[in-house]
Write a structure and sequence with these properties.
Shape: elongated
Mean pLDDT: 84
Distance between the termini: 37 Å
Order of helices and strands: HH
Radius of gyration: 12 Å
Structural class: mainly alpha
Low-confidence stretches: none
Helix content: 55-70%
């Protein structure tokens, strides 16, 4: 079972990024990086264009 990172904060996601075992979980890491990129992108858009 893979972790569900949807509710994690950006700080928590960055911590996971630096500590995850990339050799043991390469596919999980790839999915995680996509999610982190998406959340980071959304955060930047929110800061640039607040509603």
């Amino acid at each position: 079972m893979e972790p569900n990172y949807d509710g994690y904060t950006l700080d928590e996601l960055h911590d996971i990024y630096h500590n995850v075992d990339r050799d043991k979980y390469p596919e999980r890491f790839k999915k995680f990086v996509k999610l982190l990129s998406l959340k980071t992108s959304l955060k930047k858009k929110t800061l640039i264009n607040p509603k």
